[in-house]
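Lab notes, practical 5.
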Amino acid sequence: MADAHFFNDEPFLHHEEGPDLLGHGQYAQHVLSLLDRVRAQTETGVLALIGSWGSGKSSVLGKVTRRLRETENGEGWLIAELNPWLYSDLESLTQALFSEIREALPKEERWSEARQRIGGFGRAISPLGKATAVFGLDSEGLIQEVSNRVSGDTSASAAKRKAEEALRKAGRPVLVVMDDLDRLTPEELLVVFKLVRLVGHLPGVYYLISFDERTLLDVLQRSELVGNSEPRARDFLEKIIQVRLDLPAFRERDADILVNRSLAAVLALHSLTLTASEQERLSEAYYRYLQGRLRTPRAIKRFFGQVDATLGQLTGNVDIVDFLIVTFLRTSEPRAYQLLWQHRAELTGTSMNLPSRRDERPEQHLERWRTRLQDAGVTEQHLDGVIGLMGMLFAPLRQALGYGANTEAIARRRGIGSIDYFDRYMVFGIPDDDLPEHTFDTALQQLTDDTPGTEADELLLRLRDDTQRITRRIGYKRAAGAPCRRPRSSKPQPRTTATSPPPLKGPSACSLRTAPWTSSRKTS
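Output from the prediction step:
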């Protein structure tokens, strides 16, 4: 499943990309058609692909360049990709541009003149030191280059004319692709625009650049050329860009589809399904609090990538909905996540409250947490959502929000709001002083069947050292799984008296009501 590739930052760039859920393929085809139209009307031009961070600009650029290379023929586009991040001054960036254009030209003999002229133009406008680095001149070549510059026609304007003639004669367009311009400093950004608009303004050379407009305008307004004026920054951009390509909006429906597919992929990878109650809780968390935060493909992929990366041995040992919520807090509000451990006892209802807090009103409790979260960097825009998510995890906050809270139910589902399971969520595994659910269930089965086993020995040891906790966990099992029938066997089973408790069974001996996902839920 393509959606299961959570750990790359360039989604849907390969042949095996599956359905075009975001419409990137269709839009890439639109860009290709527009490139041909621009080429038919002008010798050179700048097209800008504009979209917010994480909206899929790199995916579209990847599709455009891949399809151009796939359809390359004697008249097709040549591709040069330039990363402006690698160069901090105009000379270095200029040399890199001409080097990339030269490398994009075919190696056949008929292209040798164009390759030579492009290299000559680059050397003509470059200091000797940078020319030797970019064009690979050794000491003998450096001496010859000095001689050529002194005795020959080395003016930049003459070299540019020769390069223009060679490019026109070659007759194939070159597309220079530059991504993530919004991540440059103001000085670096002005260098790039100077290069694109002036130095690199060559026949047959076109530019496809991409950026987040809001960020780019902010960067431009920090430059001396534009100053703190958004209208001036927009005017400046209009002088650089001939064709504006706004990435299609990522609709709410698109986000919901991608979230559902990503969730299904994670569940399938870990052999999980959701019960009806889990589906209900997850829907509440998503539509109330998460939907507004998962608004770009990158945000969705990053979230589920973290879920996949840390679920691991916790599969079957934690409540999956709680785990999803905790993972969201950890990745999107890391300082708020740190507060969970800091206030562990208060959140799980196991602290010895100060006398001043025993008669505390719910609104006072909420205000204290609002202050803590604000101090932890949660913005006012997201404050209520974070408190709402925490209220879904912890009984004290849920009660303060005016909802009923069942602490026993939290413990039965192995929620983070139970002191018996809290640590699992924070260490991404089973602590040394804890027992995994599978081991616990096996031990109970061995004790029930009077069968010796290492699991039973370990459980009895923990029962001696941590009697209250183990007793509580046995109670959770009874409440969640009883009555559980013994499996049929050829041996007659003894009757249980009215006063004897039913035999304890792990979940594997009980039928679990699951939602209609494609995989079976682990019963460990």
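Observations recorded by the TA: Strands lie at 45-50, 78-81, 174-178, 205-211, 243-246. The chain has a mean pLDDT of 80.
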